[in-house]
Amino acid sequence: MVDSKCVVMPTLFKALAELCERLEGISRRVISVNLVADFLNSLESDEVEPAVSMILGRPFTKWSQQTLDVSWATLREIIRRITRVEWKVFLEAFNKTGDLGSAAKVVFESCKVKRQAVLFDKPLTILEVRRSFEAIAETFGYGSKEKKERLIEALLSLASPLEAKYLVKILIGEMRTGFNEGLMEQAVSRAFQLPLETVKKAGMMLGDIGTAAALIKTEGVGALSKIGFQVFRPVKLMLAQMANDVAEAIKEHGGQTAFEHKLDGARVQIHKLGDNVRIFSRRLTDVTKSLPEIADIVKEKVKAHEAIIEGEVIAIDGEGHPIPFQHLMRRFKRVHEIEDIAEAIPVRLYLFDILYLNGESLISLPYIQRRQILAENAGGIPLTKHVITDSVNEAERFLKEAINCGNEGLIAKRLYSEYTPGIRGKHWLKIKPILEPLDLVIVAAEYGYGRRREWLSDYYLAVRDTKTGEFLVVGKTFKGLTDSEIIEMTKRLKELAIKEEYRKVYVTPKIVVEVAYNEIQKSPKYRCGMALRFARITRIRDDKTPEEADTIQRVREIYQKQFLKKGNIRVQNSI
Ligand code: AMP
After folding, report:
1. Mutational pocket test of ligand 1: of 347, 381, 411, the residue with most ligand atoms within 8 Å of the beta carbon
2. Residue with CA at minimum distance from ligand 1 atom 23
3. How many angstroms separate the CA atoms of 175 and 400, rounded?
4. Which of 235, 237, 262 to mutate for ligand 1's pocket (most ligand atoms within 8 Å of CB)?
5. Do 290 and 332 form a contact (C-beta atoms < 8 A)?
6. Residue bearing the CA closest to ligand 1, atom 5
7. pTM for the full model?
8. What spatial distance separates the first Cα and last Cα of the chain, rounded to whole Å?
9. Of the residues 312, 348, 381, 544, which should be mutated to test ligand 1's pocket, given the most ligand atoms within 8 Å of the CB?
10. CATH 3.30.470.30 placement within the chain
């Protein structure tokens, strides 16, 4: 006889979907944190990480190399096939809600066809959903597109309208419940009754809050003291805040600081164990295949058996001068037959930090000591140029030199600061000499005219609103991209298309571009009341996610600052 107490019922995906639906409607953070904490407490150990990831809108852990690669265009066709609902129902719902998941729910509700879920009454569990995601991610090679579609179709066929809403949101990576990683840390802290700092630290070390929560659940809090770095598991990157000028950086860092050239390339975190080297990008994806010569150089030069080091990879011309960033991005995208492109676009590595060496974490050591250890272990790989100074004049000269060498500016590093993974704090301050370009997300595009009539060449650019999670348009531009980039962009945007209105195509906010502009103005043209003047795209930031795009709050800040400067000029003129 089976003891009924021992039979563990797997948690249904329906429960997770209902939780997310409640979170969407709650504005008080403590209430949502408590709800999630209770939910985490009710889960079995193996359900914790998948549930945390999914509530945050991720199919897998943050550091996972698995990706679903499902476009909205594909998903749309699958939903149409399953539901056989007239598409105008979807468009109306999307216009009303502005959200793909919610619109999918409406379509599922309108579906009169008896679907598998109804026929077999087989409810989806959280673990089954995770297994489906894994199967989708593992599909590649010949015939993979069809196989992927079949797997997604099978998954969605089992879903109720509410479940479909959240599956769609996870599949396309747009959760938008407002429940972010910071709140999840609070929920985990509450669920397992641990200090928030302990939970944050565990998340940082393991590179993922879900992995940390699962470890606490299975092994208890004692396991946290044993967490350390593990080579080949990337660690979240330390990031920099903006400073207006070198004087501000010196002051902020207590009168003296280390300035380093800020190279205009791509951040890499390199893990080495014996002869094995793996390179992770800023988004912590494995890019080793795209940069074989960098892996070789580290293997050859870095003598340490085990190390995690960081630096910037830049593209260079025949004379070794840095060349524009978009060339480098072409290198990052290529994973097959890379010899030709490696010859056409040579790259160079500059190192600037070391996090781990032969079994020892170095992140608690002060910056100057880490830099010293890095220099001793770099084996001749160049480090970023740096000076330690308390003089504004010297720092300004160094900034000019950095710009003249084709770099972006400087990064000031507090001499006695630790390496803080995942934190964009004041220990690192970036200084760029001109009006800081903005990283914006393309949310719609229009077909051009004349030669460009077949291309989506006019782009609507949006910032994030951190309060609501919405993307708000602040400008429009057809300037900056080359013809071949526009052709490629057209292809990508069509894949992301949500709806078309005459010549305008609305897209899922996925693509981030860096945009230069002359001024920010108050303007009634866009809903947010701000508009960029003379916006032009300076590069496509495939290394950034929409969550990393600039915010409306930042745009308002820059607006205020320009206003102040103009005020000063007027005062000076009048003297
Ligand atoms: P941003 O991408 O504008 O937030 O600026 C921070 C980025 O500057 C880092 O993530 C690195 O990719 C890059 N960077 C370039 N040079 C350095 C340096 N010397 N130290 C740290 N980061 C650098």
Report:
1. 411
2. 262
3. 43
4. 262
5. yes
6. 240
7. 0.65
8. 96
9. 312
10. 239-431
Atom of ligand 1 nearest to the CA of 413: 20
- Kindly give the distance from the C-alpha atom of residue 240 to the centroid of ligand 1, in angstroms, as a whole number: 7
Q: Which atom of ligand 1 is nearest to the CA of 267?
A: 12
* Nearest atom in ligand 1 to 430's CA: 5
CATH code for 438-561?
2.40.50.140
CATH 2.40.50.140 segments of the chain: 438-561
Q: Which atom of ligand 1 is nearest to the CA of 386?
A: 19
Q: Which residue's structure tokens are 């393991």?
A: 206
| Both tokens assigned to 553 | 């709050």
- The catalytically annotated residue of 62, 105, 148, 262 is 262
- Residue ranges matching CATH 1.10.3260.10 in the chain: 58-172
14 is an active site residue: no
Q: How far apart are the C-alpha atoms of 215 and 269, rounded to whole Å?
A: 24
Sorted by sequence, the CB contacts under 8 Å of residue 415 that are 6+ apart come out as: 253, 256, 257, 258, 366, 367, 368, 388
* CATH superfamily of the 239-431 domain: DNA ligase/mRNA capping enzyme (3.30.470.30)
Question: Span 58-172: which CATH code?
Answer: 1.10.3260.10
- Tell me, in angstroms, the distance from the centre of ligand 1 to residue 267's CA: 7
**Tens-of-pLDDT digits for all 575 residues of the chain?**
444 445 678 999 999 999 999 999 888 999 999 999 999 999 999 999 999 999 999 999 987 768 888 888 889 899 999 999 888 888 888 877 778 899 999 999 988 766 655 555 678 999 999 999 999 999 877 888 899 999 999 999 999 999 999 999 999 888 888 899 999 999 999 999 999 999 988 888 887 899 999 999 998 888 877 777 889 988 889 999 988 789 999 999 999 999 999 998 899 999 999 999 999 998 888 899 999 999 999 999 998 999 999 999 998 887 777 776 667 887 877 777 788 888 888 999 999 999 999 999 999 899 999 999 999 999 999 999 999 999 999 999 999 898 888 788 899 999 999 998 888 889 999 997 656 789 999 999 999 877 788 899 999 999 999 888 899 999 999 999 999 999 999 999 999 999 888 789 999 999 999 998 877 888 888 999 999 988 899 999 999 999 999 999 999 988 876 544 332 222 222 21
Ligand 1 shell residues, CB under 6 Å: 239-240, 260-263, 267, 282, 312, 352, 384, 411, 430
CA 161 to chain centre: 29
The residue whose CA is least distant from atom 9 of ligand 1 is 267
Cα 354 from chain centroid (whole Å): 23
Which of 279-287's residues contact partners 24+ apart within 8 Å by CB, and which partners?
280/234, 281/332, 281/543, 282/237, 282/543, 282/544, 283/543, 283/544, 283/545, 284/62, 284/63, 284/207, 284/234, 284/236, 284/237, 285/65, 285/67, 286/65, 287/332
Residue 88 Cα to ligand 1 midpoint, Å, equals 46
Give 470's Cβ-side CA count (13 Å radius).
Answer: 11
Phi, psi of 150 (to 5 degrees): -65, -40
